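input
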Amino acid sequence: MPAKCTNLIDRRDFLRAAGVTFLSALAPQAFADTLAADAVFATAYQRRDGSYGAAIISEAGKVLHAVDLPDRGHDITFDPISGRSVVFARQPGTFFVAFRHKGDTPPVTVESIAGRHFFGHGIFSPDGRLLYTTENDFDNAAGMVGVYDATNGFSRVGEFPTHGVGPHELLLLGDGRTIAIANGGIETHPDFGRAKLNLPTMKPSFVLVDRFTGDLIEKHELPPELHQLSIRHMDTDEKGAVWFGCQHEGPATERPALVGRAVRGKEMQLIDMEPKVLSGFRNYIGSVAANRDAGTVAVTSPQGNAYAVIEAASGKVIAVESLTEVCGAAPDRAGFIVSTGTGVVVEPDGRSSRDETYVWDNHMLRIG
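output
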């Protein structure tokens, strides 16, 4: 803080005090400057009246901008070039919505093509021109990546296979060309809602695909005895390793490892955890987030009402916290900000807030 400035308050406290009324009164440029001054976060939500939407929130959990959704959302991706975010419908949803944080242009809603539904995740190309989404070719039980032209109203311009069943999250790796995809291995069909149709024969996999050609680069499957360990969510650490979280679809009495790490050209590695920590997750990891500056990875479990922080270099769990229905997580300062299905947001320093209007959905994205 410059020495000449006195009586200044922390920006997080300022946003906490100011809230939506202040921000909505700002001129567009001032609003943009406020959002750009520090990290903000994007998340889907459900209002307590039962309606759905997506929001940009402050570190203190205050809603800065919100858009309505026709149904429940899941994850959000952001393109810094256009300043647009895209929120994806929760599986087996058939829409995504693109919006600008200032609200200066109307949101754009895009429907899936016939025979497809979304799995809740997507990414932009580095230049912001293309959007890639995980989709289900449900009549053929095949995972697909849909390709959309973000410069032309998100028109659908192609697709390529995920080389597996039930793809969930996808990541663009550091070379800007390779896409990592978590194939959960679970067959679903919208005629049966969210029912899991192939649990005895699941084959989850982690794959690397060339986004330009759709060619398979690498495919890794878990050992046969872990075929019901569905790989779902991912993030990359400071060295480019992909950390993934799993959801076990086998007997509740089993306690397989739920978190792993994948490095290109090597076999996947599952991370050992103390039985008490692993048992506390109740066979379900709901979100994975890496803090590359701090060298840590957070994994959350809304089923177990707990989250853990892992040291990326060693794979050791260095902290475990209890929090009801915790799932959303994003890097923030030297730690993580987390959100819950009860409307609570917890900052890295432990300060928490609870919103009386919104309950937060599964994922949180840092924009800053």
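quick obs: The radius of gyration is 20 Å.
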